[in-house]
Design a protein that fits this description.
It is a single chain. By secondary structure, the chain is α/β, with parallel strands linked by helices. It folds into three domains: 168 residues, FAD/NAD(P)-binding domain (3-Layer(bba) Sandwich); 90 residues, Guanine Nucleotide Dissociation Inhibitor, domain 1 (Orthogonal Bundle); 93 residues, Polyamine Oxidase, Chain A, domain 2, CATH 3.90.660. The chain is 32% helix and 24% strand. The strands form five sheets. It has a seven-stranded mixed β-sheet, with helices on both faces. Helix 1 packs parallel to helix 9, helix 1 packs across helix 13 and helix 2 crosses helix 13. It binds flavin-adenine dinucleotide (FAD). Flavin-adenine dinucleotide binds next to helix 1, strand 2, strand 15, strand 19 and helix 13. Flavin-adenine dinucleotide (FAD) binds next to helix 1, strand 2, strand 15, strand 19 and helix 13.
Length: 428
């Protein structure tokens, strides 16, 4: 049986390989890095297992959860599922915004209840937010024309405080794009899928292990058992179209394939545009946003009041207690999304974050060590009306997959997984 080439062992490539394998086909997946996972992978630091960035999954990530199930992973063994409960602390005022969904109510009433009973905003602001949330399903979560989330929120009379304490932290977490340029339509798509259908879709899922152990390793094991092959440390250096398909060249070897799924990141397409020039236009208009994760190790008895707490009017945006999440006691991960490149050193950044945390959470005094990881192109900028390419390309039997392809999701694990599945389905 002819094998199908998949280039890239991130979530999209792994999902595509799994889908093909499930259909009884055989794939060979080439991953340039030493490990699978791409932008969602575990790394070693000292004797601690970290992730390249603290990730969260949502109950609405149905395809990702299906993939894990297919690979034989029991959700409860690897993920902690928490009903949505948001706490956002204001560094300036010291006030907290608190929103707890009601587990006894169906969607979307569970979230409307949360807005009604939210603490840290006044009644007028809550009603404006509830009217906005009711307007969304009445309009099918569809805008006539995409606009920035900032302008949509202004049109719906969302107060600066509410924006600051709820909408902006959610926008940064979901779209990794500033409010002023973020696509309101993609934001509505995320709210539709997480808030409007089943109550559990809004659950927050936090990994009990690192991301490689959570997703990539079980999937690689499934692929290996089922007749497909995964080769790591194998960067594909060129892809040349031939009369019958494509020639792939790695440092070690040349391969012939009839069908190819290119599942690298959007900025990595340019490695192949010399021989496949029509790939150029697909993502040349894309821009990218970084995500920085500052890991701070405190004494083992230090903990937060919840596994995940937001911060506002601060550099720190979301603060995770990895003791509660994955048993790494005293280890705090601070996420800073969509921020202009930092001018200060990593040490100075870690010190600035440490200072903020000691104000936000007085139990966090001085860390024992820090580790700063910046992914410069963590995600594409999910800008207004961004034109995203389809899985199918101008080349026969040559498809692309990745979080950036045309879908109604922002750059997320679920978006990448769906894209991989769609690319696999498009092959015949
Ligand atoms: C710090 C950070 C935090 C994030 N937080 C979240 C979150 O909380 N929730 C969420 O859902 N998403 C989050 N994301 C986004 C999510 O991780 C990505 O959307 C997703 O992992 C993208 O997967 P992908 O397969 O599309 O691309 P990638 O992960 O980029 O995979 C592409 C793969 O292709 C490989 N490759 C490239 N060129 C070649 C070549 N020539 N030969 C062989 N292999 C090649 C790369 O090495 C890479 O492994 C976050 C991302 C980052 C960076």
């Amino acid at each position: 049986m002819p094998k199908i080439a998949i280039i890239g062992g991130g979530m999209a490539g792994l999902a595509a390989a799994t889908k093909l394998t499930q259909q009884g086909k055989q794939a060979i997946l080439f991953e340039a890095g030493p490990n699978l996972g791409g932008r969602a992978r575990g790394i070693n630091y000292k004797d601690t297992r970290l992730d390249n960035g603290q990730h969260i999954l949502l109950g609405a990530y149905h395809e990702t959860l299906n993939l894990l199930e297919l690979a034989g992973v029991a959700e409860s063994a690897v993920l902690t599922r928490l009903p949505l409960s948001l706490q956002v602390r204001d560094l300036n005022s010291g006030e907290s915004f608190v929103l707890n969904t009601n587990p006894d109510l169906p969607a979307p009433l569970h979230i409307l209840w949360g807005l009604l009973t939210a603490k840290g905003v006044i009644a007028k602001e809550k009603w404006a937010a509830i009217r906005f949330m009711v307007w969304m399903p009445l309009n099918g979560f569809k805008l006539k024309q995409d606009q920035s989330l900032a302008s949509l929120l202004a049109a719906h009379q969302q107060s600066p405080t509410f924006i600051n304490r709820l909408w902006e932290p959610l926008c940064l977490a979901a779209l990794n794009t500033p409010l002023q340029s973020a696509s309101a339509q993609v934001f509505l798509n995320v709210l539709r899928d997480s808030f409007a259908q089943k109550k559990n879709d809004s659950d927050v899922l936090l990994a009990k292990t690192d991301l490689t152990a959570l997703i990539s390793e079980p999937i690689a094991a499934y692929l290996g058992k089922s007749g497909s092959e995964v080769i790591t440390g194998a960067a594909v250096e060129s892809i040349t179209p031939t009369a019958n398909g494509y020639t792939l060249q790695t440092k070690e070897q040349q391969y012939q394939f009839k069908q190819v799924i290119l599942a690298c990141g959007p900025h990595q397409l340019k490695s192949f545009t010399e021989s496949l020039p029509k790939l150029t236009v697909l993502t040349e208009h894309f821009t990218y946003q970084p995500i920085t994760t500052v890991y701070l190790q405190y004494a083992g008895n230090v903990a937060l009041s919840a596994p995940m707490i937001g911060a506002t009017n601060s550099l720190s945006q979301w603060v995770f207690d990895r003791g509660q999440i994955c048993g790494q006691h005293g280890l705090i991960a601070v996420v800073i999304s969509a921020h202009a490149p930092f001018k200060q050193t990593q040490k100075a950044l870690a010190e600035a974050v440490t200072k903020e945390l000691s104000t936000l959470f007085p139990q966090l005094a001085q860390p024992l060590w820090h580790k700063v990881i910046t992914e410069k192109r963590a995600t594409f900028s999910c800008n207004v009306a961004l034109k995203r390419p389809k899985n199918m390309t101008a080349y026969p039997n040559f498809f692309i997959a990745g979080d950036y392809t045309d879908s109604d999701y922002p750059a997320t694990i679920e978006g990448a997984v769906r894209s991989g599945i769609d690319a696999a389905a498009a092959l015949n």
